[in-house]
Amino acid sequence: MVAASGLAALLVLVLAVVLLPRTIDGSGIPSAAELARVKLAAAQLGMVQAPAVKFNGHVDTRGGSEARLDVVAGNTGELAGQVSIGSHEFHVTTVQGRTFLTGDAEAWRSLDPPESPEKLAGRPVELPQNFFGVNLAELAPAQLGKSLDPALLDGKRVTVGTPVVINGRLSTPITSGHITSYVSDPDQAIRAPEPSTSTMPTALGRAGASIQFVDAGGAGAPLPLPEQPRIDRVEMDTLSGKGQSGDKRATFKVDTSRLTPEQAQRFYVDYNSKVKELSEAVNPALRVAAQSSGHFVPSPCGTTSCTVNFQIGNTISASSNVTLQSVYANYTITITAKGGPRR
């Protein structure tokens, strides 16, 4: 009886192996996780190739504060848009990996800056890279797109969640390490069914009947390449691995949408104008203290002009997270002559 039971178990095992889904060449059918990774890779490629991407969402920093983002990131690191912190709004610009905020005095006062809020008002202010808990410069599509499957480097699988609707599209969450990307197929837009105008049966598939006419006289124009899957949302605990002080880890959640070539062109035109404004930027983490002394040179001194020699020294101090390389400072010297100031 025991032998019979063992034989039955063996037959069940063999039958299970034989009946496992196989492809034509005998290899196993990819699992849902493997198929999801293929779809994620295609969506990553689409993001890497996008000229610009719009991000709308929020960052919860380790310090517990929330920053709401409505920004556009160019493919190679350009970023501009609005950031709301509490009830205050700032304009944000990133260039060459550096981030600048512009806001009014009340907005700066809410952040308790090291400089007077009145001095910072209306001027671009450079921030530390980890100010938001994430480095906004890393939202560049070419960089972000390549970072969405960290588990691949560790040889680990992705996990697939239950699809959700995001901006009218049925999107599947695919989690790799600490990053979850919501990916939708090109044809996954949720639309109301159109009323049928024919009595002919159309239930030939999920998308209805599809007819393609081929010109028998020649090859004609090539068919367009199929559209890639889209990344509709990205969630992660951090991009830079660092955040503001506190125990809470920085979390990041943004919805994404690719810009059309025309929209991307307008973005770059506006972005270039914002970059020009950065010539007036300040950095509260950097201070320059100047010492000067001067005296008149008795000769030469003409009827309309005299010569003055000045000696100028300076002391530069910076926060611990600032590496000093070169600092440019403008000096204004005021001389009082015959009761009136001269510059």
From TrEMBL:
Q: What is this protein called?
A: Uncharacterized protein
Q: Which domain of life is it from?
A: Bacteria
Q: What is the lineage of its organism?
A: Bacteria, Bacillati, Actinomycetota, Actinomycetes, Mycobacteriales
